[in-house]
Amino acid sequence: MRDVEITSEPVELYKILKFEGLVASGGEAKVVIGEGQVVVNGEVETRKRKKIVGGDIIEFAGEEIRIVCK
Question: What is the CATH superfamily name and number for domain 2-69?
Answer without folding.
Answer: RNA-binding S4 domain (3.10.290.10)
